Amino acid sequence: MLRKRLSALVAASALAGALTVVLPATSASAADCAPAWSSSTTYWGGDTVSHNGRNWTAKWWTQNEMPPGNSGVWADQGACGGTTPPPTDPDPSGFVVSEAQFNQMFPNRNSFYTYQGLKAALSAYPAFAATGSDTVRKREAAAFLANVSHETGGLVHIVEQNTANYPHYCDTSQPYGCPAGQAAYYGRGPIQLSWNFNYKAAGDALGIDLLRNPYLVERDAAVAWKTALWYWNTQSGPGTMTPHNAMVNGHGFGETIRSINGSLECGGRNPAQVQSRIANYQRFVQILGTTPGDNLSC
Predict the structure, then answer these.
(1) Fewest 10 Å CB contacts: which of 64, 66, 138, 153?
(2) Which residues carry out catalysis (predicted)?
(3) Exposed, middle or buried, 280 (CB in 10 Å: 0-12/13-18/19+)?
């Protein structure tokens, strides 16, 4: 009788074990996401936010530093909301600036300056922000956009604001003259393209007749961005190298200032303007999650 009872207990135990094996395991639930990080909010030690599918807790006071940041202020608390963080590259096309980051850089921009216009212009100069390491690519994009921001008041101005200057940008010594009119070649676009010879050179490079129709630069966002990329990638201005070469070859942000407006700003001529450009650059590299590097001033 005892043997029968023991056999029954063993069978019951085996059945229970079998049932335990086939029951589905309970998975740990993902943490809830804290309120989303905001660039306009001041956070104190212990405050927790969410960003890109992860929770982050501030170790001390912080404002405008997007998680994970570079100063060590944010402590990673892990994934939240059951989502997977996005890949390191924020845009599937390979461009290192996402639309959300672009909007964060230019919260008050003129609607003319679209992110789509910038993306459409990239094909004209494929080496831009696509050369070197991820850090170099992000620094170049930040440097370009920082100078653009300075030139346009944060992508607010499409055309030069001082209309009294307009007639001055026609160099009549050029054999092609100024077919659109003497006052037609004023500053336009992200880098404020000006002078008839620059409109001709940019138009020739891009396959667009900007000498006869300079107004395209203030009417077509992609054309406007292309003229800025033309200057950035091909012109040295008063400097000794193109801004593109300055960034990809490690010469630093200061050399991009020299190539764009060095004759008026560098060498102590206008330190406030130089500092304005540097401040933009420092803010933009932070948004892109990288560091500014050396040689920031000219």
Answers:
(1) 153
(2) 151 (proton donor)
(3) buried
